[in-house]
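Methods — Computational structure assignment.
A single polypeptide chain was analysed. Its primary sequence is given first, followed by the predicted tertiary structure written as structure tokens.
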Amino acid sequence: MPPFTRRQFFTSGSHLLGGAALSSLFGQSLQAAMSHKAGGPHFAPKAKRVIYLHMVGGPSQIDLFDYKPEMMKWYDKDLPDSIRNGQRLTTMTSGQARFPIAPSKFEFSAAGQCGMMMNTELLPNLAKKADDICWMRSLHTEAINHEPAITAMQTGNQITGRPCLGSWASYGLGSMNENLPTFVVLVATPTNREQEQAISSRLWSSGYLPGQHAGVSFRSKGDPILYINNPPGVPDSVRKRTIEGLNALNELEFQQLGDPETQTRISQYEMAFRMQASVPELTDLSKESEATMKLYGPDVKTPGSFANSVLMARRLAERGVRFIQLYHNNWDHHSNVGGRMPSQCKDVDQPCFALLEDLKQRGMLDETLIIWGGEFGRTIYSQGGLSKENYGRDHHPRCFSMWMAGGGAKGGTIYGETDDFSYNIVKDPLHISDFHATVLHLLGFHADRFSYKFQGLDAKLIGVNPAKPVKALLA
């Protein structure tokens, strides 16, 4: 058995010495048996892959999916203390003298046979898919600021350093292809860049899972991955020999130290070499039909646009990438909702419709789970100045809306209700841990049994929360 590093020794716990002794007696077969692996899904998954569209900043549920016509009568009246009920506020509005109600300025109407009341003024294309979508209007979280909220939404915990959902999917299900990463991250550029939030690579970290399960970020401009192409004057044959030499050195290091991250480095070098051929083919849209390009809208040919990124997500899914995480920024509407919401919705409306339609036409939707949502919601009261045509909204973790489609999600479902102020949940609350448990269920895992040994604990995406999948959301 190769000697352990100092870090491995101290993180291996009380079983290290016994394991080392047994390994010396029974050889490498026991060592392989003791290594922790997910072992595949617990039951047949409905979803083979995931495309997660995260709207960074917290979309306003009141202006999109949580119809509150009663609020028109409350324009510019103060939020009742009985509704707020002493709940936590951010420092951005806690000092306001009053909390004036700001009804949505946008037109809502019923969409689909399910009758989902939504903003059909700004999302007319998405409304056509209402019966394919599982609508969730009662998400809630404890985090009220962006960094802890988005971290909790992506990793199940407000504290950084945990594996994200994409890493758990990679760890549990493994790869479906040899020439592309299992988990890919795309960051789209919004048309309006008025108030963007920082997007940290910590969000696609593998945390305490092996490094091979971290997300690989593809750039929107230039080479999708830095240094993926050979330097000038270096042919493939020289690059191949260089990688073979590096891997031989890394293999020697692994034999001496036994650090599993060394094997990750070896596999990454090999993957990078294969990607030199696969990535150019992936990013070449010239073979997409004219009908497909038209389906995604006029921005599809603009590198880094949401439309272009969503089409790239479909191409990645088509080529066996297990989990695609796509971020779209500028949903932090503290002001100018009237000016910015139309731009944000124009970015996402047609491409989201196109993604669902495209996947359905290709026979992929039933096995591809699409997730759309942010890290929290927005307040019914206005932050700053208020008029009937414009207003701002602060962070609101007590209730927000998301949607899923395909991959075993129950289309046409409208789950959860909030009060007339979209401030408190009155029916079917959906904590983000239960949402995570539902997604894991669709991937074939019992959330309370899907774990990884870390520092003596069975670490899980849902942590110690008693989370369960929500059966009403499952087809």
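Note: The radius of gyration is 24 Å.
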